Amino acid sequence: MNYGRMRFVAGFLVIPVALYVIYVIAPYAQAFYIAFTDWRGVSASPRFVGTENFQRLLGDGIFWGAVGHNLLLLILMPLLTLVIALFFAFLLNAGGRGGTGGIWGSKFYRVVFFFPQVLAIAVVAVLFQQVFRPDKSGMLNAPLIALGLEPIGFLSDTDVAFWSILGVLVWQAVGFYVVLFSAGIASIPRDLFEAASIDGAGGAQLFFRVTLPLLWDTIQVGWVYLGIAALDVFAIVWVMTAEQGGPDHSTTVMAAEIYRNAFQYFKFGYASAMGVVLFFFTIGFAALALRLSRRERIEF
Fold first, then answer.
1. Nearest to residue 219, comparing CAs of 121, 298, 118?
2. With CB atoms 3.0 to 4.6 Å apart as the test, which of 73, 147, 192, 264 could cross-link to 230 if both were Cys?
């Protein structure tokens, strides 16, 4: 009986597993192989060079600058996004008197917060190019110019450009996690908030003693997703910034350097070596984040 059931399950799994191996595992394996070659994308039989590409990476200052930017994003983007999203989600769902409801107009605000999610990432990048313009047509610099102040080079100043990119990434991501955390808060029984309020808990205590512990699993998932997104930032940097990672490589990230080396310099072997490094960064972060954030599950 069990043998027949296993054959039945295997019959349904064979096609999706085969597709996964062909379209996911096989490209990964091919990328690992290419990383040990000098393939330029045209020769049928690339020359095996061993660890030469990885040795070159050790002395590549631009690549390690990109790694540093990714690591900063890995820390700051999830932290800022989750803190802001948690704050707004709590206000929208449990910020009313006694924690029994959200603030006035919460349904409207949910739509407003989620609006960036309906925009393609390239559209967001083009939109903020206009917002950050250093002349009178820039939404942020126009008031400064009108007051006689020097405009800020949001995308042209090497000290400011990276933080401008970080701000756009957080703005674009917050809305999704507001909705995600709102769903999590809505699933918490109202009785818990009412009981805590009767016992004298204020807004801060309701958040830290009731909401946060019961949302921990959702926060953990959000942290992992945002961390992976921070390591895979490409479109915003490539579309928004001068020189696709400028000025002077001040905003470049690993994904941008992989694309540049592969499709502009035709160094597919070297780009694949960068991709292997990014792969291990991503896997390592996900494993570490899940391990460090593990805690006893709270049932309610």
1. 298
2. 73
